[in-house]
Amino acid sequence: MASEPLYINENIVIAGWELTEQFVLAGGPGGQNVNKVSTAVQLFFNIQASPSLSDRIKANALKLAGRRASKDGVLMIEASRFRSQDRNREDARERLKELILKAAEPPPPPRKKTKPTRGSIERRLKEKSGRGEIKKLRGRPAGD
């Protein structure tokens, strides 16, 4: 169990009891160390049941998580980039923080519809008639 809370920003704080950590053997280089010490971290966070996040942030986070989230809404982040358990733990927490910050961003403003300019309409029609002339020239020549 992760004991200390994870501070996302001034409005969002994830309590320590919401995060679950599991330490597993990491693959890759590292010699004997990699075969003996469980340095990789699996950080579990139940997005669906979290009281710390709003519904909009939960939905966005689940969309951003993709295959890292289960059908029940539990996110699993695996960190095995570093050789020490503490650095992998910090890396997993940092990646969770980045995901939630991205999910908390406000939606982009709606697109404003604009009319095409008179010049662009004229250019389009001129191009269109030019295409028609080219296609007419592809036909059989007129017999005399």
Automatic annotation (TrEMBL):
Gene3D superfamilies: 3.30.160.20. GO terms for biological process: rescue of stalled ribosome. Its EC number is 3.1.1.29. Residues 100-144 are annotated as: Disordered. Pfam families: RF-1. GO terms for molecular function: peptidyl-tRNA hydrolase activity; ribosome binding; translation release factor activity. Keywords: Hydrolase. It is an enzyme of class 3 (hydrolase). Residues 11-138 form the Prokaryotic-type class I peptide chain release factors domain. Residues 120-144 have a biased composition (Basic and acidic residues). Belongs to the prokaryotic/mitochondrial release factor family. This is Aminoacyl-tRNA hydrolase. It comes from Rhizobium fredii (Sinorhizobium fredii).
